[in-house]
Structure prediction request, 724 residues.
Amino acid sequence: MYNELLTPAVIIDLDIVERNIENMVELNKQYNIKHRPHIKAHKSIYFAQEQLRRGCVGITCAKLTEAEVMVEHGIKDILIAFPTIGKAKLERLGALIDRADIMNMINSIEGAIGLSELGVRMGKKLKTLIEVDGGINRGGIMPGEPTLEFAKKVKDLSGLDICGLLYYGGTIYGENTEKGIIEKTKMESKELLETQKLLNDNGFNITILSTGSSYSARMAKYLEGVTEVRAGNYIFNDGSTLWPGLVKEEDCALRILSTVVSKPDKYTAIIDAGTKTLTSDTGSFTKGYGYVVDHPEITIYKLNEEHGFMISEEPNDLKVGDVIEIIPNHACVIPNLNDTVYGVRDGEVEVSIPVDARGKNI
Amino acid sequence: MYNELLTPAVIIDLDIVERNIENMVELNKQYNIKHRPHIKAHKSIYFAQEQLRRGCVGITCAKLTEAEVMVEHGIKDILIAFPTIGKAKLERLGALIDRADIMNMINSIEGAIGLSELGVRMGKKLKTLIEVDGGINRGGIMPGEPTLEFAKKVKDLSGLDICGLLYYGGTIYGENTEKGIIEKTKMESKELLETQKLLNDNGFNITILSTGSSYSARMAKYLEGVTEVRAGNYIFNDGSTLWPGLVKEEDCALRILSTVVSKPDKYTAIIDAGTKTLTSDTGSFTKGYGYVVDHPEITIYKLNEEHGFMISEEPNDLKVGDVIEIIPNHACVIPNLNDTVYGVRDGEVEVSIPVDARGKNI
Prediction:
């Protein structure tokens, strides 16, 4: 299977990807929520277009340069979910706004002033969401009164059209029970709705409530009032959704093919995938550095840059030359390490997929 | 300073790099040790050529595809310090051996047979080092008798010229005192010398003893008998050498420029460098995810993919838009995330340096 691929290689099952997208779009549509997927997970035009074709309303980018790549390839409805700070970046943002329908976010006065000045220079009001803190103190303004106070301070900046709130409830990834995840999902909705009401009661016109993690977006039923979800990871799934039981192995589209390159003893096997393939990312509920498909008895207990160290309690029958499949702890960081990933279907490589925005971190 | 660079950006001080290379070459030359630097740290033709120009005898590559890039650009004396396993990779290795002077390594019978078959097909004996375990059970054969036993098993493979031993003493990175590092360095030398003697007493002709970490290569005085060191990290230095006091801040050539993008409270600042810039790598003796130059009071306590979370015990005076410099925990994984790094001198950008072998993990 996939004999033509040299390892390590990233394979992505297209049937699973297509099902994951359709399920996410359909689920959210039931509750009148639009899906604007975060493309940081795949950084590829191919998958972004698959998402748009299957009902997504636009995309979310992590950085300005990711958005540039997407616009270059004809994708025009984009939320940049990161503050654009500094004159040079604002100039580049301006060039992008000239060519596409870009939504921005702010979480500081400095950021708001810079963006507004850009809007004024361009002679338009830039569509802007205020980031509301989702519990991880990542730069969002605290929900409720603090957000109202912030909104009042930026209200008169004439280059901005403050039209929505942006929220990332990152603490949800610390939950591994359905009950805990539902509670956090309800909190996302509650904090956004209350803050929206407060602002609109004070003369604002907040119509977009954007939230999203690949946990809460699965619980769309509890996202009352939310208008858009930005889930990104769900397209592949990984250890972060597999270990807490949110998905099954057959929902995990992205795997790393790796070869056993040495067998120092009967318990240990060394593979050709290290931190430059799998990254050092661990997860709240994952074990080691990835899940070895068909070998639940084996743990990837350590990584060097080019070596993965696997061990089992009983002797294992892996031998030099064997090829294994790994579901990584965190899929979103894997395509970024590659120029190309391989789209597979029914055990055959169907398409080489360029990771167009690989490395775009600016 | 470096105002023209959008952040996050990787800057590399060329004066420091040149000094680091020259010091390493000179130090080892005093003890008759050649320096064959590991280019996995920089993955760039520019720096490989700087190393060769300043007295290195060749280079070490982590993977076949890294070596391909180097050969493509005219660098011809290469050790591939990773087992080449499987028919497809061996074929590509053959193409490379046709064009350059490649040294290989083996640590399994399967690997030895594959390599020998390639040599036979090519009508030549391939220069091959046996990997001796350096204490981390990464695939090397245990020093002494086990290596002799292994060598006897592969002796009659007619495609191989068994000419040396390869050793990576990874446990040395667990030491943070000069005494501990010297002890481990002496052990490298002792295990290699004893194993060499044992083999040569049994009819082998082992002339190359290759070792190397950026810790032990600084202790060349204690590397008796070693003929080549493969140190790689030393060209930049990073948290792994800075925190235990092996180098000073002014020896750290690679830094990440990053911008404060939000200031959620007076103790916290959020920067635009996360795991896709700094990686999740920690170090034995580092604190957080990097050392913030000029701000020893600040810790990078958490990373998301695009966000770095910084905190100080007392209120800090960082503000949105400020640009900081970070010395990463582990420099070797940073250039790999970028197409380009910036060579700087006296505070000015002198040259854009392509990371030619970025992402070459095969």
